[in-house]
Known about the structure:
Layout: E1 2-9, E2 16-19, E3 22-25, E4 28-31, E5 40-41, E6 55-57, E7 63-71, H1 77-80, E8 91-92
Parallel strand pairs: 1-7
Antiparallel strand pairs: 2-3, 2-8, 3-4, 5-6, 6-7
Amino acid sequence: MNIIPVPQRRDDQYPLTKAGDALMLDGEIFDFVDLPNGATLPREAINSPWFAGDVSRDENGVLTVPLLLPHGANAPESTRFPQPMTDVPDGPVALPPYDAATIEPEDIA
């Protein structure tokens, strides 16, 4: 699964966990296992404000999921201009820091 973060200045945030072709986002499960290769699920068909566009599965079976990436007023550049997250492993998904004040020492490298 690839996640395309779409930054947006917001005061709210969400926890994100991946399990196979499913995401648990803000306590709700979105399972894309039934999306066939080469298909697209329109954004309008997903009942969540966190999806930033259509979810698609390429011919090789790889899901691409665009998600809003909320950030604070003092978000670092890496959050305001994030890179796509490719081959995201199962488990809690580490999103870029919400705000400069939330950067942990291990995030600076």
